[in-house]
């Protein structure tokens, strides 16, 4: 497993279909249907920003998924200490590649990358009904730090 940085927004948009469709299935009242063209334009704009990085997950020169990360640096405020982290926005594997240990290898490489950049924390979030993500990240040693709640008002 190798992570290779990419600027191919079209390929990332195509790979995004899997994770986006999962979100649509879990939360159809929140997520819009997948639109490859609009998604490619969105990722193209993000790839121009230095702190966002996209990696293709490669197994023997074959693309099996992608990861979108952000290198965050938050200044100290009156309320919080300064912080630096590697934030995972999305990690997606093609359906046929899931359950083969690729995700764990990706996470290991991201941990190594964080250490190399002297980033003490890896952060991420996932939707509460995404039980697969919850189980995976727990196995990878992630712990809950904060809860996000809502109340529907009618």
UniProtKB/TrEMBL annotation:
InterPro entries from the UniProt entry: Acyl_CoA_acyltransferase, Bact_Acetyltransf, GNAT_dom
The record's section on CDD domains has: NAT_SF
The protein's UniProt keywords, in alphabetical order, are: Acyltransferase, Transferase
Q: Could you tell me what this protein is called?
A: GNAT family N-acetyltransferase
Boundaries of every N-acetyltransferase domain copy = 10-154
Record keyword Transferase present = yes
Is Transferase one of the keywords UniProt gives this record?
yes
Q: Name one Pfam family in it.
A: Acetyltransf_1
